[in-house]
Amino acid sequence: KDTFNNLRHKVPEITDNAENGHYLGGALIGKNIEKYRTIRGLSRDELAKKLDVSRQTIFRWESGQRVPDLIVCVKLAKILEIELSELVAE
After folding, report:
1. Which of 41, 68, 76, 77 is the most exposed place for a label (fewest CB within 10 A)?
2. What is the pTM of this model?
3. Residue 23: pLDDT above 50?
């Protein structure tokens, strides 16, 4: 939480749910990846190819089993045409 507070460009307030990485039983970031991937009309395979990862990696992120690292989150935001804060916010 402190890391986000020290960024040059502030991220919206991080709630306890976001801090713990959970939202309705799944990872918050994963739910947002799935949401924006679907909005952009990308399949898991297509997103995986753009990020040079496996389809299973995308599934693991979306299901909350894993969380992408910060560099990948930046790439995801660009591919999904969103701000990084939208990826990590509720």
Report:
1. 41
2. 0.70
3. no
